[in-house]
């Protein structure tokens, strides 16, 4: 069974960008673990709630086949969070699937794993991605090797499906 780590902000993760891919993963029979800065209840921008069963510091990427960073305004808490950046680096270095949607591709850019890669993101983050060497696209979802990025809530289901394809 494939195991996916979904990383959400404790507050203001984007509901659709968490719930839609999670539903895709679970329908495929993948095991999903939710991690955040703290364990317990996390709240989405639209009022949805999720239970984070792991703190980022407790994550061992060797136990997972993919790391997925969920967007929403709260995701900015991970832009310079060394633990989050290291999770992205380890997943990428191990050739595991790495996903990020909305503003979360900036986490991957700041981790240094988008250099020379095709990527997309929410418009507010394009300048950061370009500055870190990413080749920005206008598509809703972009896959480059083991990295999948998406632009926002409207692409959440396709984003989940593209990550699932990498794992199948």
Please describe the topology of this protein.
Elements: E1 3-7, E2 11-13, H1 15-27, E3 31-36, E4 40-44, E5 49-52, E6 54-55, E7 66-69, H2 82-93, E8 97-101, H3 105-110, E9 118-119, H4 126-131, E10 135-136, E11 141-144, E12 147-150, H5 156-167
Parallel strand pairs: 1-3, 1-7, 2-4, 3-6, 7-8, 8-12, 9-10
Antiparallel strand pairs: 4-5, 11-12
Helix pairs in contact: 1-5
Name some characteristics of this structure.
168 residues, alpha/beta, 12 strands
Kindly describe this structure.
The structure is a single chain. The chain has five helices and twelve strands. It is an alpha/beta fold and about 170 residues long. The strands form three sheets. The protein has a seven-stranded mixed β-sheet with strand order 6-3-1-7-8-12-11, with helices on both faces. The model has no long low-confidence stretch (mean pLDDT about 100).
């Amino acid at each position: 069974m494939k195991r996916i780590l979904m990383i959400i902000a404790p507050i203001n993760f984007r509901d659709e960008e968490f719930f839609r891919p999670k539903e895709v993963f679970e329908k495929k029979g993948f095991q999903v673990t939710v991690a955040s800065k703290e364990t317990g209840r996390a709240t989405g921008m639209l009022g949805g709630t999720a239970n984070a069963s792991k703190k980022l510091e407790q994550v061992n990427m060797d136990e997972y086949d993919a790391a997925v960073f969920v967007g929403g305004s709260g995701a900015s808490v991970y832009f310079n969070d060394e633990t989050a950046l290291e999770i992205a680096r380890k997943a990428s270095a191990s050739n595991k699937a790495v996903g990020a949607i909305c503003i979360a591709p900036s986490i991957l850019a700041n981790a240094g794993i988008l250099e020379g890669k095709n990527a997309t993101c929410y418009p507010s983050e394009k300048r950061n991605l370009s500055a870190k060497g990413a080749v920005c696209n206008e598509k809703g979802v972009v896959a480059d090797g083991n990295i999948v990025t998406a632009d926002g809530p409207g692409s959440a289901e396709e984003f989940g499906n593209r990550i699932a394809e990498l794992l199948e």
